[in-house]
Design a protein that fits this description.
This is Nuclear transcription factor, X-box binding-like 1. The protein is of the alpha+beta class and 521 residues long. It contains six helices and 16 strands.
Length: 521
């Protein structure tokens, strides 16, 4: 017989009789549906009920047969797995629904941004799945359909427009240059008419306000009372303050606050652009509302060649000029020769030939280039004037000589009185003081009204000599020359100049004085 301390047993089967499993073992048996009813996991090996916790024989093997459960208890144990499966199914449904809700939120958040995920796989009317590239291609094709119908499928002139359309779909391709952030499809934007760059509405409004404020504070004396323009941040195209954007409109400007449509370009209304084409040809843009400049006009028109000699042919409106390669034959400005160039646009080239041409007054002839037919000789005109008494005293000129300068009201020699006399009579002097400024520029003539030039100024003024040492009163028209000699040293650095200052020309500078260094001992 074992001692008392050994009978109480050790381990997990402590104090439990054989054939009865512990509580954790029963829970594990209920969770595993493959375990036979009435057999506990501890009946086999190492989990029995002896004092060592290894079964009845002390080696981990049970020596007793499995205990059979009551039929009523057996039914309860068989219902436990079905209840556990129902709870697991309900948990699975809850997790699936939460995952679907999270996926929908992710799709909505990604759909609102300008990225590659904007165009998700969708199912068309025929039940076929279209990927991102397929949907994008459909949107681009629908935008360009009205244009390609006119060109017969030719998209050569649409390369620039296609680039703008592709940038509208690419992630990070469109960036606001003011805040340096990506432009999203659900944000209000404004497009510059000069460079077609997109900016956020709040950003461009703040930019315009700050630009006008800065310019007014620097240049405007009456601060804030002048309407200064504000420039585009990219191309510097100027807008007036009244052109500051206040509404979010589509590219063509027809629809305010365009709705977000996954089958249209971002910020587009989906209507025909209908803007006037540039250069103006009378036609309008046929594309759907689009970013960037309008493409060249695709209409077909009937036009003649550039020299207008050939029969009109149908050509694209954006490429109307064409040459028939025949000789132009238009008369050149020299009025003597015709243009020998092939059919061309614009003005003909200058005539390269040489011909005998008269001057504009018609007195002389000379051989000159036909490209410069207008030239002037160095003789007086000499044509008789309308009065019949005098001839034109102007140099060689074109046009009419005009009226006789001695006709009408004429002034006396000093210009103080006027009289109307025939052109053959001279205006008498008025007897008043001349008062014309004389050559000195300081005094006026004190003689009576006279013909001819005024005499030299004889007023006594104080003058200074050239060297600045002496002054003297003498007539204004004379120069004061003193007798002092120049004390400066000559270029040899040994001898003085000793020339009279009066003999040195007034425009030449006197030699600078050079000091001779003392001899070395």
């Amino acid at each position: 017989m074992d001692p008392a301390w050994r009978q109480q047993g050790r381990g997990r089967g402590r104090g439990q009789p054989q054939g009865q499993a512990s509580r954790p073992q029963r829970e594990r048996a209920a969770e595993s549906p493959n375990t036979p009813s009435g057999v506990w996991p501890g009946d086999g090996r190492g989990r029995g009920g002896d004092g060592r916790g290894r079964g009845g024989d002390g080696r981990g093997k049970s020596t007793t047969a499995p205990t059979q459960l009551h039929p009523a208890n057996r039914g309860k144990n068989m219902a436990a797995p079905s209840q556990h499966a129902a709870s697991s199914q309900s948990k699975f449904e809850e997790i699936r629904k939460s995952n679907q809700a999270a996926a929908q939120r992710l799709v909505q958040s990604q759909y609102s941004s300008s990225s590659d995920e904007d165009v998700d796989d969708i199912v068309d009317d025929g039940g076929k799945v279209q990927g991102k590239d397929g949907k994008r291609g459909k949107i681009l094709a629908s935008t360009l359909t009205t244009y390609t119908d006119q060109t017969g499928g030719d998209v050569t002139d649409l390369e620039r427009t296609r680039q703008y359309l592709s940038d509208a779909f690419q992630s990070g391709a469109i960036t606001c240059l003011i805040c340096i952030a990506s432009v999203k499809r659900n944000q209000a934007v404004w497009s510059c008419t000069g460079c077609f760059c997109l900016f956020h509405i709040p950003c461009i409004q703040k930019w315009a306000k700050d630009s006008v404020f800065l310019l007014s504070s620097v240049t405007d004396e009456d601060f804030g009372k002048k309407d200064h323009p504000w420039p585009c941040p990219k191309c510097r195209y100027e807008y007036s303050p009244s052109q500051t954007p206040s509404r979010y409109v589509c590219y063509c400007g027809k629809v305010q606050d365009p709705p977000l449509d996954p089958w249209l370009l971002p910020h587009s209304c989906g209507l025909v652009c209908d803007r006037a084409l540039n250069p103006a040809c009378g036609h309008r843009c046929l594309l759907l509302c689009h970013p960037g400049p309008c493409p060249p006009c695709p209409k077909m028109v009937s036009v003649s060649c550039m020299c207008s000699k050939a029969t009109p042919v149908p050509r694209r409106c954006s490429n109307k000029p064409w040459s028939c390669q025949k000789t132009c034959g238009k008369t050149l400005p020299c009025k003597q020769h015709t243009c020998n160039s092939s059919c061309h646009s614009g003005v003909c080239q200058p005539c390269p030939r040489v011909s005998v041409q008269r001057c504009v007054c018609g007195q002389e002839e000379a051989e000159r280039q036909c490209a410069s037919p207008v030239w002037h000789c160095q003789q007086l005109c000499g044509r008789p004037l309308s009065c019949g008494n005098h001839t034109c005293e102007r140099m060689c000129h074109s046009g009419l000589c005009g009226a006789c300068p001695r006709s009408g009201n004429r002034a006396c020699p000093c210009g103080k009185s006027k009289s109307s006399l025939p052109c053959t009579e001279d205006v008498p002097t008025c007897g008043d003081t001349c008062d014309k400024v004389m050559e000195c520029g300081l005094h006026t003539c004190s003689m009576r009204c006279h013909r001819g030039a005024c005499e030299t100024c004889r007023q006594e003024v104080e003058k200074q000599c050239r060297c600045g040492k002496y002054t003297r009163f003498m007539p204004c028209h004379k120069e004061y020359l003193c007798e002092s000699k120049c004390p400066n040293t000559r270029g040899c650095s040994r001898h003085q100049c000793r020339r009279k200052v009066s003999s040195v020309p007034p425009d030449s500078d006197p030699p600078s004085r050079v000091l001779t260094p003392p001899p070395e001992f």
